[in-house]
Design a protein that fits this description.
Helix content: 25-40%
Order of helices and strands: HEHEEHHHEEHEHEEHHHEHEEH
Number of helices: 12
Structural class: alpha/beta
Shape: flat
Largest sheet: 3 strands, mixed
Strand content: 15-25%
Distance between the termini: 15 Å
Strand order of the largest sheet: 1-2-3
Number of domains: 2
Amino acid sequence: MSAKVSDIMSRDLVTAIVPSTTEDVVKKIIQNNVTGVPVVNASGKYVGMLSRKDIFENSGEDQAAMVLRKSRACHPDDSIEDAAREILSQGRRHIAVIDDENNVVGILTPQNFLEQISRSFGDVPVSKIYTRKVLPVWDETPISLVHYATQLTGLYAFPVVNREGDFVGLITDRDLFNKIDIQNQTVISDTGLVDDQDPWTWDGIRNVVTYLIRKTSITLPDIPARDVMISSPVYVYLHDTLSRATKLMKEKNFNQLPVLEGRDKIAGMLYDTNLLEVLL
């Protein structure tokens, strides 16, 4: 019998409410170190989803109701295959789980599927589902251009290569502030986000790097990608199995892994959304 959504969904919920501002949602993302939340109305009924990507793409909009996606939710008794199909069709990483009365009872991201994928498809090689659509960046590329690339491509992770094309690291949007002490700047207060009672966390702040850059006049320093990249990233090879890949993603809470061919040549990327495809 196929597993159900109720078997794998997260029940520890963080929700946003409308009407509210996008800044209110950003505060929730920072405080709880999440990347997306279901949105409910004043009666507590589900109305849509809001992720950091939605906010990044609509950084000029101040009202959450204008940014949220009125996306289809799934139900606890749905099969995980149907839920995976819905996530892939929406092209987003979060989907709400609602009951028959439209109350939010859970949330799903690709991370929730990893254990089931490992159990049922652990022997499948990475080479069967990884994507070759990848944008490597040169280790001398200024990080301001890396950030520009995130805006143009919608990608948030880039393998870094040297002059010879050898894989030397990984840079994500969350790494772009590694050389900036944002907590000693006025960036947070300039957005109206600051509140002495809020438990700001560095990881939570890093989740909304792109939002902060677009909402303020901050400029990234003129330093190369190699100065902020992860120089010893976790990766997999084409011949590795999904069992190994899902274990790494689950243990490290990663959304993606570089895929190597040979000793140091980048072959592509493996995203947790790629993994959902084996269920279909």
